[in-house]
Amino acid sequence: MKISCFLLLVLSLSCFQINSVSGIDSVKCFQKNNTCHTIRCPYFQDEVGTC
């Protein structure tokens, strides 16, 4: 499951550039809690629970 979350993060880098605040929050979520949360982007939207 951790690999899936990592791939989700990699695929969403362009979204982070569009919405930098969401990207920063997502990175903090990964680093502190080892979890994934909703990533909002015009091209890609997904929600993943605990990695």
From TrEMBL:
One CC-aspect GO term: extracellular region
SUPFAM superfamilies, per the entry: Defensin-like
Statement: the UniProt record of this protein carries the keyword Disulfide bond: yes
Keywords: Antibiotic, Antimicrobial, Defensin, Disulfide bond, Secreted, Signal
Domain Beta-defensin-like: residue ranges: 25-51
Any Pfam family matching the protein: Defensin_beta
Domain of life: Eukaryota
GO annotation terms (biological process): defense response to bacterium
Stretch forming the signal peptide: 1-23
Subcellular location: Secreted
Keyword Disulfide bond annotated: yes
InterPro entries: Defensin_beta-like (IPR001855)
Family recorded in the similarity comment: Belongs to the beta-defensin family.
Protein name: Beta-defensin 39
